[in-house]
UniProtKB/TrEMBL annotation:
Source organism of this protein record: Hassallia byssoidea VB512170
Protein name as annotated: DUF6888 domain-containing protein
Ranges for domain DUF6888: 2-60
InterPro entries per the UniProt record, alphabetical: DUF6888
A Pfam family recorded for this sequence: DUF6888
Length: 63
């Protein structure tokens, strides 16, 4: 299953925010894994030690 264009854009925005210090007090986080949930079509992102996100086909994401 391929991600939608909006999911790819959401993934880019999320990865940019995680790996760049753009907010005061925000710490750099590494992106460990990106996978597609075949059941829902959502992208699953594991970052740092304990952050996880799901990017919906609309491009929005939730922690």
């Amino acid at each position: 299953m391929e991600p939608t264009d909006k999911q790819a854009q959401g993934l880019y925005r999320l990865c940019y925010r995680l790996t760049n210090v753009i907010y005061p007090g925000w710490q750099y986080r590494s992106v460990e894994i990106v996978r597609t949930d075949e059941r829902t079509g959502n992208l699953y992102v594991l970052a740092g030690d304990n952050l996880d996100f799901e990017i919906k086909p609309t491009g929005g994401y939730e922690a």
